[in-house]
Amino acid sequence: MDVKQLRFYVRVYLLDSIQSRFFNVMLLLAAILFLSDAYAQDSTQWRLPESTRARLSKGSPTDVQFSPDGTQIAVASSIGIWLYDVQTEQEVDLLTDHVRGVRSCMYSPDGTILAGGGMDGTLLLWDVSTRQLITTFKGHDQWRWVITLAFSPDGRTLASSANYEDAVQLWDVPTAQHRATFTGHAGVTAEGRPGGVTAVAFSPDGRTLASSSRDGTIRLWDVATGEHDAILVGPEVLTLAFSPDGRTLASGDKGNRIHLWDMDTHQSRWNFIEPTQLVSAIAFSPDGTLLASEGEDDAIRLWDANTGQQNAILTAHTRPIRSLTFSPDGRTLASVGEGNTVRLWDIDMLWAPNTTYTESKSILHAHPGYITAIAFSPDSKLLASGSDDLVFRVWNTETAKVRESFIAGDTGWIRAAAFFADGVAFASTASTGADTGVHLWRTRGGTQALLTLQQGSVYTATRFSPDGSILASVDGLDDVILLWDSTTGERLATLEGHRHWIFALAFSPDGEMLASGGGDSAVLLWDIGSGQHLATLGKQDVTQGRRDDVYALAFSPDGRTLASGGADGLIQLWDTDTTQRLSTLSGHTYEVDALAFSPDGGTLASGGGGWEGIILLWDATTFRTPDPQVSPISILKGHTREVEELTFSPDGRTLASGSRDGTILLWEITSGLTQIPADVNGDGVLNVLDLTFIASRLGKASPDVNGDGVVNVLDLVLVAQHIGE
């Protein structure tokens, strides 16, 4: 073969190789596009935290805004900001940083930036075109929600304030730097309650910034100098809005009055009274002819802004409204209710004067609220949930969609759920209203039956026995536990022994024992058959509000170990045979609100309270050994608020967690979780000494941090990644 032939064959080979690679690349691109399209169709998969396979619901909505061009709607929620297409009313993206929920949102006037006010005092800026987070900066105290935002007309300044703060902060948008602090509002109300700024708004010319406060005043700030004039309203001022021409400022207050203020004289042009106790949200239409307002009676009212005549009443919401905004063309009104819904109203259809409308054009965003109960079906294919929106839902865990739902009406929060061979059951308790009491619901084939077990009193914790035959509920007035036959509703026993408040209940796996804990710091064990008190774990204390109040309980599958957690952030492990404490686990910064053992007993999951929102996984196989593992093996981060409910699927493959952020996350516990190495040398912190300790034992069987059977460089790398934790 000569050189020319060799070159020919090389060229053929390279061409063939390139074509093959091109073909493979095209296949890959096609697959990616296909997956992207599928991804775009299923919002339950968007922006999922690591190690989760689905998110049930979208979090609780708190604010709503139209984009300046009218093509998008932004909904601030407890997990981020959802973007919707106005034409299709379908979600198009979720903007989140996986760390915090968003209480308020606002588009810049040119629509290029979307600002979010975090539930931890942080301000977030997103690029609307790329949907990428531009920056976050600490704007307020970490315990404060940023409840109000306003862009200046030129978009270069952002004003913000947080709940119960008496100052307004100004920020330079291009640099994300702090510009000024406007102070002048009082920190308390006339009655001595905490004050705080409730709303901010720029005038259309950008020269004036208005702020309202619970101190009963509106302050008009000169943006350039910081000087201000005050308008004394009297009652707490809860909301305000400028008219489009800037000549009028509208305010709503706790005295159920709407004022229209003349911006030239700072005097009230006129005012009108809402038939409710307060006015918490108002908005002008873009042409200034309509004013929308919301009161404590959950109704929206449309007023003629020139005459003060009431045009219409909108009553579809069942709880107070948090936010109102008109579309740029003025034809649609969007509203956010505390019932976790965002509704869209067709203004053109609200033509009959002084008429009540009970249906909105559409519901844009409807979700469970604070999750109060979850339970898996025996085959792990279904998950039941209850929430403070008084709706019981049954989810398909494969599709992450609701299969069926039942409304509990006015019977209170859903506290417990259980699956039966012929359907599902849930218990709800109400402490106020006409239906005060304990209520048991049975659902079969899409129908539901209600059995009221008892009326009156105050009820907190509620739990079904493992086979569902018994329901345990807490009578909070008498601090006793009531046992009920879930079929007949007959009261089986009254368990007396706690000194005050019972927060947590847990049945043993065989259903023969009940554990209870609460405000007296101890855990009590009860015999279900006889109703007798068996033992007290820990020491009962008569002091209320102690740091070691018990909030969560869970039995191991063999019933020999009981885990308890509470206000001090510690988890106590108890031997149920000897009633002795086995060990104490520490890892949560705030309280422990939920506990669950895996079906094989190898893992304990604990849910954190406060703003922590984390789940820790513990190696439960070591709990009864001479050398128990006292550090968590994994950490699951995804919720933005307290984790209140935890349960493993019966097949052990999934951990479901319910949170105050209004979401349920399904965690793949067999996937690669974030490993937290043990403090191998036992000095209380992961540091360079742990690396030295491991290095001195290379090739040995212990300490094998990553579980591959030998101490090697991989253990060093794993520990090095977590130095300082």
Could you please describe the fold and organization of this structure?
The chain has 725 residues and is mainly beta. Among the domains are: 1-41; 374-675, Methylamine Dehydrogenase, Chain H, CATH 2.130.10.10; 677-725, Type 1 dockerin domain. It is built from three helices and 58 strands. The strands form 14 sheets. It has a five-stranded mixed β-sheet with strand order 22-23-24-25-29, with no helix packed on it. The protein has a five-stranded antiparallel β-sheet with strand order 51-52-53-54-58, with no helix packed on it. The protein is globular. 47% of the residues are buried. Mean pLDDT is 85; it is low at 1-41 and 671-675.
In short:
The protein has three helices and 58 strands. The protein is mainly beta.
Tell me what the CATH architecture of the domain at 374-675 is: 7 Propeller
* Rg from Cα: 29 Å
The CA-CA distance between the termini, in Å, is 66 Å
Compute the number of strand runs.
58
Name the CATH homologous superfamily of the domain at 374-675: YVTN repeat-like/Quinoprotein amine dehydrogenase
Which key features would you list for this structure?
Methylamine Dehydrogenase, Chain H; 58 strands; 725 residues; Type 1 dockerin domain; five-stranded mixed sheet; mainly beta; globular; single chain; five-stranded antiparallel sheet
